[in-house]
Design goal:
Elements (H helix, E strand, L loop, with lengths): L5 H21 L2 H21 L1 H4 L11 H14 L1 H12 L3 H15 L7
Helix pairs in contact: 1-2, 1-4, 4-5, 4-6, 5-6
């Protein structure tokens, strides 16, 4: 992961976020958790590289898949909250797991309890 370029990390992050979304929809929690772990590893690497690297996630805030937008928006809270918060607020209205996750993330963020790897 440390040798991967930003484009590769971004594409892998998006693919893993999409895998997480589809896995959770069908109840394949083992596959979903594996994807979530990969997302966390990639974000940790981006974070280690600095804000410029983290900013590669911002285009994902407009991704066609709600799960991808949700992951990117959650991570954006750390370095671009003015962009991440509105995306999460919009996802709350989706209901279901995505809406509940967005709502919980926002609540924890506003209470200062959201921590990043």
């Amino acid at each position: 992961m440390k040798k991967a370029g930003l484009d590769e990390l971004l594409n892998t992050y998006r693919d893993a976020a999409r895998t997480h979304e589809t896995s959770m929809e069908v109840g394949d929690f083992k596959k979903g958790n594996k994807a979530a772990d990969l997302i966390a590893q990639i974000y940790s690497e981006l974070r280690h590289r600095g804000e410029e690297a983290q900013n590669v996630l911002l285009p994902l805030l407009q991704d066609e898949h709600a799960g991808v937008r949700g992951w990117a928006a959650s991570h954006a809270l750390e370095f671009a909250p003015e962009q991440g918060e509105p995306v999460l607020e919009a996802l709350v209205s989706f209901g279901g797991l995505i809406g509940m996750t967005a709502s919980t993330t926002l609540t924890e963020w506003k209470k200062g309890r959201l921590r990043f790897p």
